[in-house]
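tool=predict chain=A
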Amino acid sequence: MIGYIRGEIAELSPAQMVMECSGIGYEINISLTTYSAFNGRKEGKIYVYEIIREDAHILFGFATREERELFLLLTSVSGVGPNTARMILSSLQPTDLINVIASGDDVSLTTIKGIGSKTAQRIVVDLKNKVRPVESMSEKNRYATKERSDTAEGAVAALVMLGFQKAASQKAVISILKKSPVITVEQVIKDALKML
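tool=predict ok
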């Protein structure tokens, strides 16, 4: 799995980027938020998520880890695919999206093309307890949440590599982190293996 790519921006459009690294041009699908972050730059570092299918290897790129985490949360919701998640992230800044979900404002989500009321409600219900309003976080809480997010991301990735389903792995990891917010990735994986 590719975590990030650092290189020269060979091509950039509002929906796609080609980043050249060691002579290889990686075609990466991006949101408008990421496009804005890279527009006018000649090089950079982009966080990626790779989807491997029988007929294709698809890369989705993000300007920040937080945006990638939101993408993964959105795609964990039933009925929300990668392109729908990218559309949501193109329509709302990550901080705005977090606040919309945390406040239960499904109406704002229905203004996004392709998001009906049922999907919007499902997003809010499934993710409300997984995000916190950004304004209410102190720097300490923000750092702790980021650290927890990194721990969760690492544990889920390891469990998926071990052959467990992503949805079940995420559920187990979230459950463990709710009980023990300060815990190592290794311990989360060990505890999750007992649950799965």
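The longest strand covers residues 43-52. The longest helix spans residues 139-161.
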